[in-house]
Structure formats: structure tokens, C-alpha cells
Write a structure and sequence with these properties.
Strand order of the largest sheet: 10-9-8-11-12-13-14
Number of strands: 14
Radius of gyration: 20 Å
Shape: globular
CATH topology of the largest domain: Rossmann fold
Distance between the termini: 18 Å
Strand content: 25-35%
Order of helices and strands: EHEEEHEHEHEHHEHEEEHEHEHEH
Number of domains: 2
Structural class: alpha/beta
Helix content: 25-40%
CATH architecture of the largest domain: 3-Layer(aba) Sandwich
């Protein structure tokens, strides 16, 4: 198997290249013309290939991922595994009203159209994306690795694992099952008002202790988790920790969230600079091991 990647590979992509057997100097030659158009030439094409793609930022990266996969197909590749650690647009997995785009389904269909036979990703926002995919979609869980930084902090302490909405209940259950000690779990009914602002309504479950660990697949603007903290304070919680797989941190989300949570744990599915990590005390978990095992069929 030969591995190809987009220009300027991230630290996660570099580690994946080393784990699955590849060179940082990928056999894909990229060039950008003065008018902004991409040119691509692939070399050393074999039948079985792996493509390390991206969807963040979505525009150019998604296009280049599809272009690279299609070019490999045209050059003779026949068994292609496409790896997208952070599957962008996964929240657009349903049609709210007639005329809305079903973007997550469009992306999996586009991956199939350019020749991908298999798609490997990390902690999908919704299993609906996998169910609607026309090709095999393997959703890798990183929760065994993400729980490790919490084991010492929570050992022997009462705590509650919190899902900010019903969609993350399964994540909270898995997270709690990987920890020892006396813990509770709860989740909130979530709604949005006409302006799009998140509201956490009635809670479900049993609160335990005064320490809350909020778990979710991603953090974008931070509105959902901050609203959850507001409701948790009314339930008597005083300490707050956060664990998410995909750290988007749009706008000033990191500044707002960093003031509230005493512990932040994320994966490296999206890059964070060393300066940002130090400034906010963020623990970053390496996802290359579980992803490489899935790519190589060992998971």
C-alpha cells in the first residue's frame, strides 16, 4: 500500500505516514497557479493506496481530497482507503425543511464517485452519516485514549459525566465505563431559539458530587458546553472539565471556554499551535495509533 497526502501535512498526518509506511515527501506533486487553480501529478501509483484527506478548512481541502482520490483512480489505483480524521459537515446530516442540502451525504457520495472504496474517520458526529454512506465507513473511537488524562484527577472522587445533549449520551456512557470510581451521568434536552442560540432544558440522569466532566465529539463556538455549565451550576456543580475529540474553537471560543474549565483534553484531529496549548493548558491526545490500526485492518 502506498500513501498520499495533501500539501503541508499536519503533525497527525506525518505520524500516520510513519505508522502505516510512507514518506512525508508524498508521491503527489502539487502546484498552485497564479489564478488560484490547483495542478496535481501523482507518481508511483500502485493498486492499493491510502489517501490522507482533510475537510477543515472545508473549501480547498475538501476539493483537494476529492481531486487526489480521483487522480489516483485515473492513474490505476483500484483499492483506495480514504482517511478523514475530522469529517466536516457531519452536523448537516438531516433535512430540516424542503430545499435544505444534505451535505454529509453529498460528501460520502462524492468520495464514492471519485473511487474511494473505504472511508476511515474519527468520532463521527452522528451515526446517520455512516448509515447513509454508499461506501464502507469505519468510525474509530478515541475514547479509551481520551479518558487517560482524567483517571488520576478523578480517582476516588465523586464526579458526573455529562453529555450536553441527547446525541452525545453514548459518548458519556462509554467515557464513564472507562473510568473507575463513583460517578453519575446526565444529559440535557437541547433546543435553539430563533437566533440559533443554544438552550439546555430539562436534565436526565443522576448528579453525583460537584465535579462535572462534559464530553462531546467537537467544540465549535463553545455555546453548547457553556450553556451546559450554566445549567450545571444551578445543580450544585463547582468544578468543570471538558473532553472533546475535534477542537474547532471558532472565533473567540477558546478564550471563553478556557476561563471556565480547569482541564481541557482534545485530540490532534485538528492542529493547535504549541503556544495555544501552553496558554490554555490543553492536553492533546495523539490519534495516529488507533487510526493507523483501523487503516491496516488491525482494529
Amino acid at each position: 500500500m502506498r500513501t498520499y497526502c495533501l500539501p503541508d501535512p499536519s503533525s497527525l498526518e506525518r505520524r500516520l505516514l510513519r505508522r502505516i509506511g510512507g514518506s512525508v515527501s508524498s508521491p503527489a506533486r502539487w502546484k498552485v497557479f497564479p489564478n488560484g487553480e490547483d495542478f496535481l501529478r501523482v507518481e508511483k501509483v500502485v493498486s492499493r493506496v491510502c489517501v490522507l484527506g482533510r475537510t477543515a478548512p472545508p473549501g480547498d481541502n475538501l476539493f483537494r481530497t476529492l481531486l487526489l482520490t480521483d487522480t489516483l483512480r485515473r492513474a490505476g489505483a483500484r483499492r483506495m482507503t480514504l482517511v478523514i480524521p475530522y469529517f466536516g459537515y457531519a452536523r448537516q446530516d438531516r433535512v430540516g425543511r424542503r430545499g435544505d442540502a444534505l451535505t454529509s451525504s453529498f460528501i460520502t457520495s462524492a468520495c464514492a464517485a471519485v473511487g474511494a472504496a473505504r472511508l476511515v474517520t474519527l468520532d463521527l458526529h452522528s451515526d446517520r452519516v455512516r448509515q447513509d454512506s454508499p461506501i464502507v465507513l469505519e468510525n474509530v473511537s478515541l475514547w479509551p485514549e481520551l479518558t487517560r488524562p482524567f483517571r488520576r484527577d478523578l480517582a476516588g472522587r465523586e464526579h458526573t459525566i455529562v453529555a450536553p445533549d441527547g446525541g452525545s449520551r453514548h459518548r458519556a456512557r462509554e467515557f464513564a465505563g472507562l473510568l473507575s470510581g463513583r460517578s453519575g451521568s446526565l444529559w440535557f434536552d437541547k433546543t435553539r431559539d430563533r437566533t440559533g442560540r443554544v438552550r439546555c432544558g430539562r436534565h436526565h440522569g443522576t448528579p453525583v458530587g460537584q465535579t462535572a466532566v462534559i464530553v462531546d465529539d467537537q467544540i465549535d463556538t463553545g455555546g453548547t458546553v457553556l450553556e451546559a455549565v450554566h445549567r450545571l451550576k444551578r445543580l450544585g456543580f463547582r468544578r468543570f472539565m471538558l473532553c472533546v475529540t475535534h477542537p474547532l474553537f471558532s472565533g473567540d471560543a477558546l478564550r471563553r471556554v478556557g476561563r471556565v474549565f480547569e482541564k481541557l483534553v482534545v485530540s490532534d484531529s485538528l492542529p493547535l499551535s504549541p503556544g495555544i496549548r501552553r496558554q490554555y493548558g490543553i492536553t492533546v491526545i495523539d490519534a495516529s495509533g488507533p487510526l493507523a490500526a483501523a487503516i491496516l485492518g488491525q482494529r
